[in-house]
Design a protein that fits this description.
The protein is about 50% helix and about 15% strand. It is built from 13 helices and nine strands.
């Protein structure tokens, strides 16, 4: 059996049910702000929590009448004020960067909502009269709470009245994930096959458009954190204006060490397929392997979660193949202790 001290496999398999629970919870929260007094939305978060903001930007923002901004760092945008809705996402509730941004947002009069399992963030928002959307704190890691955090943010936007119909799109995504799970649990799973091909390589994950960018970002981060392996991502068509020029040098290294995974979805621009065709012909043949992964579902959200679900299984399968425990992230914990000045070594 693979080493899995924190139950990451079980948490990953339960993604559809996690999303269902989050959807039910967000409708029971205290009164949300009135959308008529909101001029823009800012979603704040880092790492496995912050990607919930990227999901909202990719799937909800295109249908909203006001802009959405993502903040991943310490700096509060200068325009945040009394007409701002700030959604702070931190699974632990103790993320340093998020707490600093939200504290400033409150001082500037913004309406603040926390999506968290508790911690200092929940205390801060409640003390200042804001809403707290609680997620299941028993989930072993923030990255394993991807569904709960993302659905909570979308649910908040729906409840506020900025993204009407979010519930329907989430339910379609859940239905697709339950179908995909049957495939991924099979002995001849595509995830196992992909992980076998990627083992011993540095994967470059590529995709296109807003939902493809989030999916590629998620694949990259999951391989980093679960398999403790390097991985990178890029987005088309932008990569066709710079990155593709960088595959001429080091031919031996490329053939030996680099792989490419192309994430396809149902909402690509028509010209993207031609760009993939060109890149596969000109670049793919120079690499250790070039793999295409299709994502499907009804709507952008279902496509996005379909692709990320496959990526989650791939990362865990790669961790198993490398005999790596996917849960603990000693390097990232070390960064937090170093920055906080609590390193004892």
């Amino acid at each position: 059996m693979p080493v899995d001290s924190q139950g990451m496999w079980e948490a990953t398999r339960a993604l559809p049910e996690q999303m269902e629970a989050a959807l039910a919870t967000v409708t029971t929260v205290c009164d949300f702000p009135n959308k008529d007094h909101i001029e823009h939305v800012v979603v704040v978060g880092m790492g496995g929590s912050g990607i919930a903001g990227d999901v909202a930007l990719a799937t909800a923002a295109p249908f909203m009448s006001i802009p959405v901004t993502i903040v991943k760092g310490y700096e509060l945008p200068s325009y945040v004020g009394k007409h701002s809705l700030v959604i702070a996402v931190s699974f632990s509730g103790n993320t340093e960067e998020t707490l600093e941004v939200v504290s400033h947002a409150i001082d500037h009069g913004a309406k603040c909502i926390a999506v968290t399992s508790g911690g200092a963030l929940a205390d801060l928002i409640r003390e200042r009269g804001g809403c707290v959307v609680e997620v299941d704190g028993s989930i072993p890691q923030p990255r394993a709470a991807f569904g709960a955090l993302s659905v909570s943010v979308l649910g908040v936007l729906d409840q506020v009245g900025l993204f009407a119909g979010a519930t329907g799109w989430v339910n379609l995504a859940i239905a697709r994930l339950k179908e995909r799970r049957q495939e991924l649990d099979a002995s001849d799973s595509i995830a196992t096959s992909i992980a076998t091909s990627l083992q011993g390589t540095i994967p470059l994950i590529v995709s296109s458009g807003p939902i493809g960018q989030v999916a590629a970002m998620r694949w990259k981060a999951q391989i980093n954190e679960n398999a403790k392996a390097p991985a990178f991502y890029s987005v088309y068509p932008e990569a066709c204006h710079n990155e593709l020029a960088g595959f001429d040098a080091y031919p031996t290294m490329l053939e030996r060490d680099l792989s490419m995974v192309i994430l396809r979805h149902d909402h690509e621009h028509p010209q993207i397929a031609r760009r993939y065709e060109y890149a596969t012909a000109k670049i793919g043949s120079r690499l250790r392997c070039c793999i295409e992964v299709p994502g499907h579902g009804v709507g952008e959200l279902a496509n996005l979660f379909d692709l990320t679900f496959v990526g989650d299984y791939v990362a865990l399968s790669l961790a198993s193949a490398l005999d790596v425990d996917p849960g603990p992230i000693a390097m990232l914990d070390g960064v937090k202790h170093f920055v906080a000045g609590t390193v004892t070594e």
